[in-house]
Each structure stands twice: as structure tokens, then as C-alpha cells.
Design brief:
By secondary structure, the chain is an all-alpha fold. It contains eight helices and no strands. The chain has helices at about 5-10, 15-25, 30-40, 60-70, 75-100, 100-130, 140-170, 175-195. Helix 7 (about 140-170) packs antiparallel against helix 8. The protein is elongated and about 110 Å long. It starts with a helix and ends with a helix.
């Protein structure tokens, strides 16, 4: 014999649920017998209900785009399909958890793990595709571009007060140099404020 409390603890479910199973005819002769009864009498999931609830807030325009992308055989189509499969498999885990079926839960978790792996592989494939087709640029390339070109612009701006002051005001080049330097400093302050806004 096995007690209802021991079964609830062993199966990690609510004792009230075990009590309802016993009332429905589950034997308490042994855990193995009780488990056989539980598997044989578990509720079958309804096939009429959708696996995922439909969102009322889903934009209609994106649905048409997604359906086109979903059918495509490129890396984006594979990524969208993999992400949807991951979402569906997670919903099956949530359903198995609500139903309290250990067999269904093990199968759902295994399927979810496989779906996450496939989604990760699809993400990497799509990232490689975007990089090779230059739809995205690696960060080290962006840094190199900024350092090369903006560094050259910075050097020109730093040299501007000295190089332009004599031509701007031949009678008082020092006054022109100070005025030009103030303008250049103001440009650098504006750039620094803009950089701070993106952090």
C-alpha cells in the first residue's frame, strides 16, 4: 500500500488531485499500479483547440509579410519557421505542465529543447547570410571605418584654427584663431552630447 501524500510528493502534484484520482478509481496498492492507472486514464488533449491562442492585437499587415517569409526557402524563412516551431513546442510544455502528465511533460521538454537548438542554428545561419551579403556589417569593421574617417576629420578640425586664422583676419590672426577654436569646440561638444544620447 502507498499513501496519497507519498504519491503526491513522488509525482510532485497537488494532494487534492491525487485524492480526486483515488475517487475516480486509482488503486493505492503500489506506486507502479497507481502510475499505470494514471497513464491509462489521463485526459487526451483536445484536437479542436488551437495550440496557440490567437492574439487580437496582432497587426494584419505583418501577417501577410510573415506568411510570405514563412514560405520562402531562404535563411529568413527557415529562421521564422524555426522560431514558430519553438513557440509551439513551448506551448506544449505549458500544456503538459497544466495537465500534470509526466510522460507528456518529458516529451514536450525534449521537443522544446530540439526546437530551441534548431532556432539557434537558424539564427546563426541567417546572421552569416546577412554578413556575407553585406546587409549587416561586423562591429570591428564599423570601428575601423569610424576611426579612419572621423579621425581624419578630427585632425582637420583641430588644425583649422591655426591654418585659417591668418586668412580670416590678417590684421589680428590671434583673435580669429580664438573665434575659430570656440566654433570647433562647440562642434565637439555637440558630437559628445549626441554620442551620450545613444548610450
Amino acid at each position: 500500500m502507498i499513501t496519497q501524500a507519498n504519491l503526491a510528493k513522488s509525482w510532485d502534484i497537488d494532494p487534492g488531485r491525487v485524492c480526486r484520482m483515488v475517487k475516480a478509481g486509482m488503486p493505492l496498492t503500489s506506486e507502479a499500479e497507481a502510475n499505470r492507472w494514471r497513464i491509462a486514464n489521463q485526459k487526451k488533449p483536445s484536437r479542436t483547440l488551437p495550440i496557440l491562442p490567437t492574439s487580437e492585437n496582432a497587426p494584419q499587415a505583418s501577417e501577410a509579410t510573415d506568411s510570405e517569409s514563412l514560405k520562402s526557402e531562404n535563411s529568413l524563412g527557415r529562421l521564422i519557421r524555426a522560431k514558430r516551431a519553438e513557440l509551439v513546442s513551448y506551448s506544449l510544455v505549458a500544456r503538459a505542465s497544466r495537465d500534470g502528465s509526466p510522460v507528456a511533460m518529458r516529451a514536450a521538454i525534449s521537443g522544446w529543447g530540439e526546437a530551441k537548438k534548431r532556432a539557434s542554428e537558424a539564427e546563426m545561419e541567417h546572421a552569416r547570410y546577412e554578413e556575407t551579403t553585406r546587409q549587416t556589417i561586423r562591429m570591428d569593421e564599423v570601428r575601423e571605418f569610424i576611426t579612419t574617417w572621423f579621425g581624419a576629420i578630427r585632425n582637420l578640425m583641430d588644425a583649422m584654427p591655426s591654418s585659417l586664422s591668418a586668412r580670416a583676419n590678417p590684421s589680428d590672426p590671434e583673435c580669429a584663431k580664438v573665434a575659430i577654436q570656440e566654433g570647433v569646440d562647440q562642434i565637439f561638444v555637440t558630437i559628445q552630447k549626441a554620442e551620450g544620447a545613444f548610450k
